[in-house]
Amino acid sequence: MRFNHTAFWIQIHNVPLLCMAAEIGLLLGSMNGDVREIDDGGTGDCARKYIRVRVVINVDQPLRRILRVDVLRDGQESMMLLRYERLPEHCYRSRRIGHVVRDCLSVVESEGPEDYDLLFGPWMNVSSPVKPVL
């Protein structure tokens, strides 16, 4: 038995304001894996600066850092940033969970400095939003 799937809360940033709804969260979240939950605050509208979805992902596959989607169907792709809550140790080079860059065995061809190809970084890992005290 392999344990290669786990659920993460993913924050999807830079979503067009007209698309800040649970239905769009389901669509965008499903581009990363199997959507388990959408945090819409109980209203159906995502009232934060991002859409928050809980998605089961295959940890053997590279993590995604962006989504490019024509959500408004106007011919213009929107580029949305993905940030993962409570992301464990992971490699910014191979985009895989389970090791860090210094232990990475992946050979990545780069024309620039050693860190030039590191389009992933600590910015991908965020903490969970604080729930308001009632």
From TrEMBL:
Stretch forming the signal peptide: 1-21
Sorted UniProt keywords: Signal
Top-level division of the source organism's lineage: Eukaryota
PANTHER family: GLYCINE-RICH CELL WALL STRUCTURAL PROTEIN 1.8-LIKE, OS09G0268800 PROTEIN
Name of protein: DUF4283 domain-containing protein
UniProt lineage: Eukaryota, Viridiplantae, Streptophyta, Embryophyta, Tracheophyta
